[in-house]
Amino acid sequence: MRMIAGRLLSLLPVLFGLCVLSFTLLATVPGDPVTAMLGLEADPAAIATLRARYALDQPLPLRFLAWFWQVLQGDLGRSIQTGRPVLGMIGAALLPTLQLALAALLVSLAIAIPAGVVAATRRNGAADFMVSLVALCGLSLPSFWLGILLIMGFSIALPVLPSSGHVPFLAHPWEALRHLVLPAVTLGAAMAAATMRMTRAAMIEILSADYVRTARAKGLPPRRVVWRHALRNALMPVVTLVGLQLGQLMGGVVVTESVFSWPGIGKLTVDAIFARDFPVVQGTILVTATLFVLINLVTDLLYTLLDPRLRGRS
Amino acid sequence: MSAVAMRPGLWRRLLRDPRAMLGLALVALAVLAALLVPLLPLPGPEAPDFMATLSPPSAAHLLGTDDLGRDTLSRILSGARVSLLVGVASVGAALLLGGTIGLLAGFLGGWVDGVLMRCMDVLLAFPGILLALGITASLGASLTNTVIAIAAVNLPVLARVARGQAMALRGLDYVHAQRALGFGSMTILWRAILPNALSPILVQASVLLASSIITESYLSFLGLGVQPPTPSWGNMLRDAIGFLDQAPWLAWFPGLAIFLTVLGFNLLGDGVRDRLDPRD
Predict the structure, then answer these.
(1) Residue B270, domain CATH
(2) Could you tell me if residue B262 is inside a domain?
(3) Number of domains present in the structure of chain B
(4) Which domain holds residue B233?
(5) B126 with A148: Cβ contact below 8 A
(6) Which among B125, B137, B263 has CB closest to A140?
(7) Backbone phi, psi, residue A85, to 5°
(8) Interface predicted TM-score (ipTM) of this complex, two decimals
(9) Distance in Å, alpha carbon of B32 to nearest chain A alpha carbon
(10) Which terminus of chain A has fewer CB atoms gathered within 10 Å of its CB, N or C?
């Protein structure tokens, strides 16, 4: 318990720093967002009202304090473009993003863990070589290019899957799944590469452990030794990596969502940057980075929880 | 690379590693493309040919042309300049600044360490792409700002490695000896810590080259990196999206260029890391 409290406390300065950086990045943008919004020939009174509403007439530190106070109360301001509360817009975009992230995670694990185990058990053989090669290629493949190739293959040349858009899962489950396939494979492939490498390395280490030799010596079937006894322990570092990747995924969605016009938080961010809708950009960056930090924290704690050896140390 | 190259036999061992050699060949190809493109008998990367728009690969245009009739091969080779420039400049800037921050923090310890590393933690708390997006949104999209944005992503990574090295080295006897001899902190840092801390920092920097090139392509693909008409692999793919069914080659080749270059840096980075590993 004390460890968890300590970790949470140490997060506070980082979260405060996140707020300062998210605010300053976008508060110091050259050009006046109000004139950008209303045009150069707008009514001066309307300009003054808007400037007062966004507190643009105040000095920067005061604006930060006012903004920070609002953020603490869960108010991320209103979109310049639509006038809607930013928090509501982020909430609406978060669901498709989580859907995509979860599907990508499943895709990556379904590819990576069997491939990593097979590579480790046939170390230095042809299968191992192929898996290592594919993993290396996967790490070097820019995910948006993979997305474009998949669109060319499965939406244009062989039109079986839709290339863009999102369908609510509860309304049309089948259509929703069809729309999910290409973005999830795109995002999942990038994760699979690293997970594959980690599974392989962890399995190789575990397979030479004494208890695995014992299990083999007492005559357990090889398949059972590998998949039940060894894999369970090898998954420890893999869990950590997957947790950290889940955080990275929050970054990866930005590009994938743009390729597939997926209405998640990444697309919201990019669209808002182009519309110079800075309250929305500030909000999405702050929320995504906070999620990233929290996911990393949970991963860290889970790891300690899963591995009793680490508990005494910290 | 000097400190790495000084290790006896590193190059010889690298030369025997087929993966590292393949990586070196791919990187060399990209570098040659970047250097030699003005000398090749190709149309300029920004020169339109309205008589040959969206023409498929042919003898006249080996990799085809885009919607303005610009030669894809010429644009890809020019794109190599942009990618390598952004990669090297952003890693180089992060190396100088992050290396200095990390060495100072690790060597001096105390409140200097606390303040500097909390700042680095804040930068690390952003997913890389998002931080780069935020910075380019703030500064505006341009080549220079792309370099600044990616350097900011790399900065905390290098600072951490440098700090770890400095912390490990400062407790060693030869550093204590320098102190006893009356040398000042900065002299010790410069003469005793830096040369010995350098090679792990450089290895990490070489690994970051690959991710920096990918990040540049992401930013340019989203329209927030290198701006047209300057060709970059990312913004070429952005343009290609509109013509996927009519001119698929516009999407094949720039992506292939990114893939092969990044693969080259990854292979080379893996090779150098493996060879520097004492267990090797």
Answers:
(1) 1.10.3720.10
(2) yes
(3) 1
(4) 17-36+71-276
(5) no
(6) B263
(7) -60, 135
(8) 0.86
(9) 20
(10) N
